[in-house]
Amino acid sequence: MLYISTCLTYPDAPISLLPLAKQLNQLGIDIVFTPWQQSPHNGKILPLAAWDYAKFYPEFLQWIEQHATQFINPAPLMRWNSHKSYLCDLQDWGVSVIPTQRYSSETLWQADLSVLGKEVVLKPAVGQSGHAVTKIKVGEPLPDLTVYGDDIIVQPFIAEVASNGETSLIFFKGEFSHAIRRQPAPNEWRANSQYKVEISVREVEDKIIQYAQSILHKLPQMPVYARVDGTIIGDTFLLNELELIEPALYLDKVDGAAERFAKIIKQQL
């Protein structure tokens, strides 16, 4: 049995995952869509629609601990990936990441953000779907920091994220499957669905694929599924996010993608 996790906030099966469900059924795999908060202690778990975990973070970490052997992706990777301080780790490991600094709400008030540029982006260290992601000019008053939780991620604003869009490369067991362009709406710079991002299939050069793949090889374990999000500037790839828990994999956008992933999942059962 495979449980595809939704969440109590959004309990229904997402339309985008129905092609995957169909392919899994054709391979003889029984699946159930169920909120992550109600997962049984048997079967495998694929948490692709656990879209509210940031609101219930302590419970979510406990859930990972309790079901550690059941996940399609390794539980230690999921726990690490749930807090955006993982970007600092990748930065330390030599990955080309948007320069990232981590602060508490107390230390951010004293921080000299001018070292990051004239404009910076604030993000909750535990957040989903662009919630509370804010751009400010250095020197302006900080926003209400209580909405960010205990830890805040600060990065320089990269104009190319808005102009070039974000490129998402999807990998299954370290092998490239397909790529998606996420273009922010006019007069917007955040490439998240709630900000009306435009989604399209795109081709990417082999060297971009190879660089994104090299990021996965720096991890202590190879994830079964991963989405590597970055901005292509000239001929270089600048990492924005690495998604290992509940990324949109756009399996409904690319012919054969759901079939490829279903076969990979079957190998894990």
TrEMBL record:
It holds the Pfam family GSH-S_ATP. One of its GO terms (molecular function) is glutathione synthase activity. It comes from Pelistega ratti. Residues 118-223 form the Prokaryotic glutathione synthetase ATP-binding domain. This is Glutathione synthetase. Coiled coil: none annotated. The lineage of its organism: Bacteria, Pseudomonadati, Pseudomonadota, Betaproteobacteria, Burkholderiales.
